[in-house]
Amino acid sequence: MRVTVIGAGSIGLCSALALAAEGADVCVVDARAAGTGASSHNAGWVVPSMSAPVPAPGVLTQSLKWMLRPDSPLYISPSRDPRLASFLIAMLRNCTTTRFESGLRNLMALNHRTFELFDELERTGLQFENHRSGLVQLFRTQKSLDSHSEEMTLVRALGGDEFDVLTSARTAQLMAGLSSSVVGGIVCPHERFLDPAAFVESLITQCESLGVEIVEGTELTLSEDSIGNVTASGAERPMTSDHFVVAAGAWSAGVVRGLGYTLPVQSGKGYGFDVPPIFPVGTRASYLSEAKVAVTPLSGATRMAGTMGFGGRSEHIDKRRAEGILTSAADYFDTWEPPQNAVPWTGLRPMTPDGMPIIGRLPHHPNVTVATGHAMLCITLGPVTGELVARSVFGRSLPAYAGVFGPDRFSRTFRSVRPTTR
C-alpha cells in the first residue's frame, strides 16, 4: 500500500514510522524541513498527567485579565481569518466543568500506554536525550495550588500516575533558590521529558532506515479529480496514493479544504528560549503555574517555553511578549537573572475548540486519515497517534476510546461533500 503522509513533524513522523513498520510504502511530504517548527520547538515534555484540555473552567475570566498585559501568557492578535471568531466562541463553550472533565477523561484514555510506547520506540533503536526524573509544579497562590490539586486527584482517578502535594517548606527543600512567594508544589515523579529536536531527528533516521521517502519544501493540498479520486496538488505533478494521512499541524485545515471540509484548527503560537544550564531547577522539569511557563533542564541548555497566542499563522516574534517568559521566572526563583541577548524561538501549535486532537478518517473520503490538533501534546501523543493512524490506514478497528477523536464530531462545519466510493 502506498501512503502519503502530509506533515513531517512529530505526529507525521510517528505515523510514518508505524506505517512503515507494518510494510506500507510511505512518502512523507512537508512544506518545510522535516522535524522543524513546533515539533522541535517545544518543552519536550512527556506528561500524561498534564494532558488536560486547554478549554477549562475559569479560562474566560483569566483571559480577560491577561488581555491588558503586553507580556501576558495568553493573547489574541487581530486576524483577517473569519474562522477565528467562531473558533474562539466554540472554545469558550467548552470551558464548562462538564466538558472539561469529559475531555480530560478522553485524553487520559488516549494516554494510557504513552510511557509503554516510548519505551518500545527506544527498544527499536531510537536514540535521543530522555529523562525520567519527574516534574514539579510550582505555585504562588494557594487558590491555584488547591485547584490544580483537585485536577490531579481527578487525573489519578482516571488512571494517571501518583502525585504529591508539597508545603512551601517541602518545596523549598526539593528545589534550591526558590522565592519565598512560592506557597507549595505538586510533584509528579513519573512524568518524563526529552530533547524534542533529538527525538524528531531520531524519528527521521528510523523512518529512512525502513525505506520511508521524505520530501521537503513541497506544500500539498488535497482535492478530487474528475472521477472522484483524491489527489494531492503542489508537487511537480499531481500525486496519487492509496491513502493520505494529513498531519500538517496548524496547516492541516488548508490541506483538506479542497475536499469540502472545514476543520476547526487554529494555530496557538508559543515562544521559548534556550538559556545556559545555570538555572537552579535541579534535575526535574518544572512548571511555573501562574505564569504558564515550562522549564526543562536539558543536557546542553535549560529550555523555557510558554504563551498561547491566537490570530493567524504568522511566525513573527514579538520580543516583548517572548521576554515575559524570562522575566516571570524571577517570581519563582530568587537567584534568577534573565540572560542578556537570549534569542527567542516560536512554534505554532495546532489547536481545536474542544482541546482534543482530531484522529481518524474523513467521513466521505475513507482513504484520507487526519491526525492533527494535538495542541501542546505533539510529543506526548506522538507514538499513540502513530499507532492509531496505522490501524486506520490498514482498515483495522480502532479502540473504543478512540471514536471521540474522529473528525466527524465537527461534521456540521463541513461544506456539502459528495460521498465517493473507493
Automatic annotation (TrEMBL):
Annotated signal peptide: 1-20
Gene3D superfamilies: D-Amino Acid Oxidase, subunit A, domain 2, FAD/NAD(P)-binding domain
Residues in FAD dependent oxidoreductase domain copies: 2-391
Record's keyword terms, sorted: Oxidoreductase, Signal
Record-linked SUPFAM superfamilies: FAD-linked reductases, C-terminal domain (SSF54373), FAD/NAD(P)-binding domain (SSF51905)
Entry keyword Oxidoreductase: yes
One Gene Ontology MF term: oxidoreductase activity
GO cellular component terms listed in the entry, alphabetical order: cytoplasm
Keyword ATP-binding: no
PANTHER family the record matches: GLYCINE OXIDASE, SARCOSINE DEHYDROGENASE-RELATED
UniProt protein name: FAD-dependent oxidoreductase
Protein species of origin: Rhodococcus erythropolis
